[in-house]
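User:
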Amino acid sequence: MDGDLLPIGQFARLGRLSVKQLRHYDELGLLVPAWVDPVTGYRYYRASQARVALSIGLLRSLDVPLPVVGRVLEGDAGALEDVRAGLEAELARRRRTLASLERVMAGGLPAPEVSVARLPARRVLVAREVAGGPEGIGRATSAAVARVLAVSAGEGEVRLTGVFPVDLDGVVEVLVAREVPGGAWRDSAATEAGAGVLAGGVFAAARHVGPYDQIPLTASAVLAWCGERRLVALEVREVYVSDPAVTAPDRLVTDVLVRFEEE
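Assistant: Predicted structure:
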């Protein structure tokens, strides 16, 4: 055995990793021992491998997933781009959460005026996207909005409606519907975006004024209103009344509707 080799315990202290971590990284091929005793199975490392061990520890402390760590060690220059994007998205989500918390602290839990309305079914253009969980709903909604707006469907005011399930656990399907003035559009437009029918029914409705990120506050209040009356909620809709391109975030108007089962 080479005299420069270090037993796993000594190398673990040198590389600031645990013996358990070193064994795991060996199994993943991230940090392979310089030599393994064929009789005992003991792992031995060289001091020069300490730099790799410390690099792995640093990247893991920055929440870099192990598969990406491997790509970094292999010299993949773009390996950390997705990690950075994910951290930025998480930071933005945290800021939105903080803004909602500050609104509740300043004004208490929302108690909007809730009314009941019966709406007919309407023929619409639709775009669907799937989010992996609540944190991805915003991105999925934006993607669906972009798709349905990209379709040429006649002149006139564009009115968009986001449709969301009541249960947001697990995979969430987001639907964005675009109403077309007069209910008419080119056949090619219907094919590109997907023609559909926005179901009618009875809705509990309230108006939200403020950033889109804080719509869940109003939606929760409307769902609570339904729960207090033992009404089974079927879906949540957001009707985007204002044009965000020309309206300040704190002045955006969104009608929140909860469709519920009729008795």
